[in-house]
Each structure stands twice: as structure tokens, then as C-alpha cells.
Amino acid sequence: MELDHDLQSLQEMRNAVDQANNAQKKLESYTQEQVDRIIQEVADAAFEQSTYLAKMAVDETGMGVMEHKKLKNEVGSRDVYESIKDEKTVGMIGEDTKNKVTEFAYPFGVVAGIIPTTNPTSTAVYKTLISLKSRNAIVVSPHPSAVKCTIEALKICHDAAVKAGAPEGIVGWISKPSMPATNELMSHKDVDVILATGGGGLVRAAYSSGKPAYGVGPGNVPVYLEKSCDVQKSVQMIVDSKSFDNGTICATEQALVIDQNIKEMSVREFKKNGSYLLNEDEKKKVEKVISPTKGKLNPKIVGKSAVKIAEMAGLEVPENTRLLIAEETKVGKEIPFSIEKLSPIFPLYTVKNEEEAEKRCIELLNLGGRGHSFSLHTNDDDLAKRFAEKMPVSRMLVNTLSSIGAVGATTGLKASMTLGCGSYGSNITSDNITARHLMNVKRMAYGIKDVDIPRPSKNITSQDGKESTESNQVEKVVSEVMKEVDEEQVDASTLSEIVEKVLQNQ
Fold first, then answer.
1. Is 149 noted as a catalytic residue in this protein?
2. pTM for the model
3. Which of 20, 257, 412, 461 is deepest in the core (most CB within 10 A)?
4. From the candidate CATH numbers 3.20.20.70, 1.20.58.340, 2.60.40.10, 3.40.605.10, the one assigned to the domain spanning 5-85+93-216+435-445
């Protein structure tokens, strides 16, 4: 008799957490050198299998481009490793000799990793690396549509880690994922922190699990082509970025906002770079494919090519078409082109000036990408700084590909496949999540300042039952004495008699 799928999933999860918990207790005693050797072996093994894992991901999910997923796997392995390899995560990690404060690292314990279908293998490798670097174990719940490729990536990581000396079970997974198992994983007593990358509902579940959690929000990223930009170069980067892996990275540009002064030139360059400009009739057909139900994205277009999406809409476009673009003037959940699409489709908004661009970009971010990322192409540094101050985002990419720039491939940002949205997006952090987010820091502090602690005043209870201090009582006595004293001089003996009389009457 075959067990119920959900029951199998739950039991497998519990077994994986138990093994991971035991393994982590052993890993916690490892030296920095041992930990660093393990993550180097994991990164090297995953990097060597980048092409294999990319092909598996495309074949299983039907999303994206194999060559692009290969690059994401390389970023998730090699680039992530390079960004964390020199970081101290064991023992004493910092010392302030002046203030006599010393810092020591200690791990969370077991990490619950939630993996999306859009970037399954690269995210699995990245989360494993940052978990092991900070001496945590990890148990992963793959997306049901990307189980095979995600688990294959995790097996490669686990085997390489064990070969390098890590305990068995330090990397675990659920091979038959289910929502009950994923929910219980996030609230399991032996899970210490959650690293969730996925849809809004899943992220909310992570934050409401009662555990510390890093979750990320959607990225409805506007890209503003300001009139001073190098139009030819900027358009080429935007097309390359938007078509990268068919738009599956959440930091990919989602809406074009273009200064009217350079609109014609920009449109011409987009066409040169393989973009197809939809007319009104074609736009309406594509709208129905983007959002058959108003306000909701059609998951069938996620990660699909522009040609495939056009075909789904009943349109014929050149076979070398990389993007579909339609002019738009409105923003809202009921406006299909304005929502996050995770596919090579753009709305094009024309603006008169910087102020109008700012307003439009914030409107788009508020629709669904608040806190995530914003992209700008300009040669005006002062304008860039003004936008950096005003945009409600956690990262702003300037004159680069937003999709891979946000994850650290073309910028100095930390290499990461989980991008925090900060308080703008109701997230706990605005950082690119990395190893330091998965470790705690304890601080040893010596006393360096002398403080005089004042002694408490003796309390005196008055006839009405209220307490007063001696100083308050003296002030009261003096006040009473002064009522008895004339403006004329009073000798010491007379004053003494008056004070004594007043005190006797208290």
C-alpha cells in the first residue's frame, strides 16, 4: 500500500531536519580552515556542473535560456564563493582594542531554504554555500516544478561537502515537496532561521512562522532612460538584461520610462536590437495573454521567449524577436503591461522631465516592486543621487544591466540570489543576503568607564501618609520658619526656637 504523498513528504522533511540538526552540531566545532575548505570544494563542484544543471533546469521547468542559466549557476557558485571566502565566521571575528569590545561568531543552527522555480539550481547552490560558510546546516524545500534539478544541485553540493570533511546530512532536501511539509519545515522546532525566495504568499508564511526569517518581495523594476544617457549603449544593455533568461530574475527591468527628448532615438535602437513594437490591436491580444484574469499574472508566460508569447497571443513576429514592447500611459493592477511579468515584455512610458519620471517610477514601484530595485541610465551624477534619495528601493543600478547587476555580476554589490527589500517592502533587511546574515555575533565588553552611583535619599513619611525625602522636609521647614519671621533681624536663639517649634508640629 502506497503512503499518502503529503505524509511521505512530511516524514521525509522530519528525517532531513533531524539529520541536519545532528550534522550541524558537529560542524559547529570546525575551525575556520575546515569550513573554508568545505565551501571551496562545494563551489568548485557546482561551478564545474554549471552547464549540466542549467540544461536540467530548462528541460524540467520549461523556463529560461540554458546559456543564461549556466551564467546564473556560475554566479551562484564561483561569484558567491569569491564574495564570502575571506569573511571570518568562526571564533573571534573582530576586536576593538580602544573600547575593549571583542566579537565572536556563532551559527543559527539549521536553515530552512525555500527555492523558486525561476532560478532553482543557482539559488540552491548559493543558499548552501552561505549556510555552510556560517556553520549552519540547510534543509531545502524545492518548488514542485523544479524538484529534479534542484535536488541534483543539492546532491552535488552535499557530496562535495562530505568529501571535504563535512558531516553526512549537512545538506538535506524534500524530494516530494508539499505545502504541508514546507509549512511544517518553517515552523519545525529544530529549524532556526528561514531563507525564503518565492512568491508573496510563501514569504508571508515565512515571516508568520514564528522563526527568524529572510524573505524577499516582488521586483516591478522601472528603468528610466534620462535624456543625458548614451542611448545606443543603454538600450543594448536593457535589451540584453530584459531578455536574459527570458526575464526570470526578479531584479530585471519591468517598465521603460523614457524622456520625450530621446524617445524616437530610443525606439529606433530598440528595434535595431530585436524589439518588436506592438500596435494597439496587437497590444490588446498580448494583454489577454499576460493577464487572463485582471490583476493576476499568467504563470504560463513566465520565462518564455518573446516569440513564444507572441505565438500564444496569435501573433506572428520575426523569429529573432527578443522583446515585445507596447506604449502605455496607465499604471494599475488592471493594466496588464504595468505589472511584474517575469518575461521579455515591456510597457513604454514617455515623460516630459525628471519630475514626471520620478512620479511615474514611484507609481510603478508602489504597484508591486516597492523596496526592491530601480534602474537608471544617465550621465548626470547629481540627478542619479537625487533619484537614489527619492526612490523607495533597496538598490539602484546605474548604467548597467539591472537583472544581473543587482545580484552582483556587473556591480560591486554582494553576489546573492536573494535580495532584501527592507522596510519599504516589509522585509527585515535591505541587503543582498549573504553568509553574515546567517550567523550571530556575541560581544565581550570590558568596563572602561567609572560611574558614580548616587545613594538613594532616606524617605520620611508625613502625617498624611505621603513619603518625602529629607531634603524636601528641610525645604518645608524653612518655608514654615520664614512665615514666622518678620522682615526685621532675628537673632540665632529666636530662629532656633522657631525651627524647633515647627519641627514639633510636623
1. no
2. 0.88
3. 20
4. 3.40.605.10
